[in-house]
Design a protein that fits this description.
Helix content: 10-25%
Radius of gyration: 15 Å
CATH superfamily: VC0802-like
Strand content: 35-45%
CATH topology: VC0802-like
Structural class: alpha+beta
Length: about 120
């Protein structure tokens, strides 16, 4: 399985609303629940109205479109990273999964995944 790494510095935030969020940037994700509005976006465009924020993330994605019938893909990646003591933040889209790790852990994460047989693009 091939993984594509993104160089963009990312932040994971909690925001009070979406009215001032700039959605014109790649790697921008929103999750809305009954308890919160979460935002993942490039660090250089984090809106000022965040109520909580954690910077220092980088992302990679599983290349290609993943069929919904496939099982265990994210679990396997998560397991490799857990074994290496690396936390993650995952975001799923219609096509695939994006895995965020702290930038300080990215090299170790890619090394562990490479040893587990993943191809790093």
């Amino acid at each position: 399985m091939k993984l594509k790494v993104f160089e963009t510095a990312l932040s994971v935030c909690k925001v009070s609303g979406l009215e001032r969020v700039d959605f014109n940037h790649e790697l921008t994700f929103v999750g809305i629940t009954d308890e919160e509005v979460s935002l993942v976006c490039p660090t250089d465009v984090v809106p000022k109205h965040t109520t909580a924020r954690e910077d220092g993330w980088q992302a990679f994605r599983i290349e290609g479109e993943l069929d919904f019938s496939l099982v265990g893909i994210l679990a396997k990646i998560s397991g490799v990273l857990a074994e290496a003591q690396i936390g993650l933040f995952a975001v799923s889209t219609y096509n695939t999964d994006y895995i965020l790790v702290k930038a300080a852990d990215l090299d170790r994460a890619l090394e562990a995944l490479g040893k587990a047989g993943y191809e790093i693009a």
